From TrEMBL:
Coiled-coil residues: none
Listed name of the protein: Inactive hydroxysteroid dehydrogenase-like protein 1
Record bears the keyword ATP-binding: no
CDD domains: 17beta-HSD1_like_SDR_c (cd05356)
GO MF annotation, one: oxidoreductase activity
Keywords: Membrane, Mitochondrion, NADP, Oxidoreductase, Transmembrane, Transmembrane helix
Residue ranges crossing the lipid bilayer per the database entry: 12-32
Keyword Membrane: yes
Organism: Photinus pyralis
Compartments reported by the entry: Mitochondrion
One GO cellular component term noted in the UniProt record for this chain: mitochondrion
Xref: PROSITE patterns: ADH_SHORT
Higher taxonomy: Eukaryota, Metazoa, Ecdysozoa, Arthropoda, Hexapoda
Domain of life of the organism encoding this protein: Eukaryota
Amino acid sequence: MAVLEDNGVYVFATIGVISIFFLFFDTIYTLLQLIHGILAPYFAPKEVPPFNEKFGPWALITGATDGIGKAYSKELANRGLNIVLVSRSEPKLQVTAKEIESQYKVKVKIITADFSNVPKAIEAVKRELGELPIGILVNNVGKQYTYPTYLGEVPEQELWDIININIGAVTLMTRFLVTRMQSQGRGAIVNISSGAECQPMPLMNVYAATKVYVKHFTAALREEYASYGITVQHLSPYFVNTKMNDFSDRLRETSLLVPDASTYVKYAVYTLGKINDSTGYWAHGIQYFFTMIPPMWIRMKIANHLNQTFRQDYLRQCQENDNYPDNKTQILESR
């Protein structure tokens, strides 16, 4: 009996040593990845082969005239790719196209498409794109709540727009171009989600749910096309200083944890072809690590608290400007 007990102790001790060994090296590896992520975009050489040779000569970016989409367009143009800009505002498309052409000396094509009507938008893209060989597709277009809101306060049309744009656009744009990439034997698809996918998110309920779709859709797509030479990347940024976060002044101040779009994209583009799932930005990676430690019910409570705070920021701004949104009565009753 004593022999059996001694053997049991040795077995559990061995398991403990092995576990500590792997934990130690996993921690060191994570630390090295963090340091690499911080420094590499500034000191690493250009991609070899460059993106236009590795994936193809053209990149198409949806939601390309503001925020992350515009920054992606510029960063990919800086790497030598010709750019297709897709957005709903033709005047903004023309301004952005001229800016990129003059600064980076690449070809730029614009396509006007409103993804709140996905079938019509897809037909417009197909018609205008013709047989252009798209090497990189950046599914960036998305719609956020105007401000953190209880479901019953959100106008029906706004909900439909969030669902159609956040789910329909990424699905149908991918379906359209993945077959081209398959026939070309190369290409990259970047689906931009959100840190909102990490837990149910009260007051941004539908928006967060659509981002879970993007995450799962991208993972399954990667597996489907793994043998065709197509890179499929999922990005889940946390807060970035863009117009999408206009509901709170706290999120319109650039900081270490809330980068501007250009800073975010400088890091995110560097991860393309290297990391399949990423926040895209090193500081967001740290946020993600600590976010995922608590159980989901705690994360949901924290998300609710944050969104309640941002909601009050927005309502305070409205009160100061005497500029309440259309559902003013409901808002005042729910405060």
